[in-house]
Protein: FAD-binding oxidoreductase
Organism: Parasedimentitalea psychrophila
Amino acid sequence: MQIDTTPNQSSYDVVIIGGAMMGASVAWFLANHPGFDGSVLVVERDPGYELSSTAHSNSCIRQQFTQPINVQVSQFGADYLRNFRQYMGGDPDVPDLHMQSFGYLYLAATAEGEQVLRAAQAMQAAEGAGTQILTSEMLAEKFPFYNLDGIRVGSHNPVDEGYFDGGSMFDWWRRKAKSAGVEFIRNEVTGISRAAGHITGVVLADGSRVGAGHVVNAAGPRAGLVAQMAGVSLPVEPRKRYTFVFEAARPLAVDLPLTVDPSGVHVRSDGKYYMAGCPPHEDPAVAPDDFIADHSLWEEKVWPAIAERIPQFDALKLMQSWVGHYAYNTLDQNAILGPHPEVGNFMLINGFSGHGLQQSPAMGRGLAEWIVSGCYETLDLSPFAYDRIAAGQPLLEQAII
Ligand SMILES: Cc1cc2nc3c(=O)[nH]c(=O)nc-3n(C[C@H](O)[C@H](O)[C@H](O)COP(=O)(O)OP(=O)(O)OC[C@H]3O[C@@H](n4cnc5c(N)ncnc54)[C@H](O)[C@@H]3O)c2cc1C
């Protein structure tokens, strides 16, 4: 499909840098906010989304977080997925979104790990989540295919946790935003013009300037670079995460929960296949265009961990693998949302550290509300404000995979 590279106007009420999951979500929620009748431009350097986090996602949703606000954000995400057509205005062409609730199963092998799971379960239950702590005996009864040597407890929630069709949500946000008048162009923002405490516009790759009332940084793993253009810093960097899709010679008779093994490897059902993932041996920041794979990871780390935990998976065939980038928030592995305190019309939606796809409905809605009204009108997302970064007070999310 041909995409314009030049904007139709010389200035817009809102310019969104990055048109993947977060950019599309903000665009759609803005266009559908009853208090907004402004103009929106989305600038995307890679409209095939080949290098985006969105294209490399595992597309899972959970309520097993350690921060209550993340539970609430995912609860809205689950509600949004279930009622997608209604949220999209009741258009009969909008599909039901597929969701497969196999649940996440976090396994703890140490007293400290058990304590973290028990505290998180108590908080999640108080927030209305269906998480349960399962002792090793309960685990053995419910999931007889695991080798539970060394495992003390597991925590499992089969309600609104598992895979969801994030790709269709993304497609429909872009499609509906475009039909509501949002302009998407293929171009790169290479500079941001700033006058004292606010931004006046952006500079595109060909040197042309576009004026902006608000600028949204939805640049994923490149968010730190975009922030630098505005003269501010963000503790967000690209980090590699690996995904492996495999076939088991002896598949399980039931869905495999998204099992988070104490080794750091996670594995789940993926239709008739299985999907596993992990961080690399070392986990430094990488260049935003570095997608070079470490082929030893599957052989040395992932396969042995899976075969150890699920003895029936002794014979596996690797079908596909890829490297993606987390937009990793080095302070606390949580989102950074809302205006930058020094540059009030520079709006952040960054640092999702591997759980952004499921958070995109709540985050896009929240940022649109803030742009329109200067406050959150529905779910209060102020715990994600930049202020904590400046103050060095982490909102630490411990349940990161
Ligand atoms: C391997 C992996 C597994 C994951 N699994 C899950 C999961 O199971 N569940 C979950 O909730 N989340 C998951 N995530 C995280 C999730 O995919 C991301 O949080 C989410 O996709 C982030 O979307 P985004 O729009 O912020 O970033 P991106 O998808 O990276 O999009 C940013 C866009 O900005 C564009 N851009 C950047 N700079 C510029 C510029 N200067 N000018 C113009 N355009 C620019 C880029 O081209 C890109 O398209 C996973 C991520 C990875 C890598």
The chain has two domains: 11-59+166-235+332-391, 99-162+238-325.
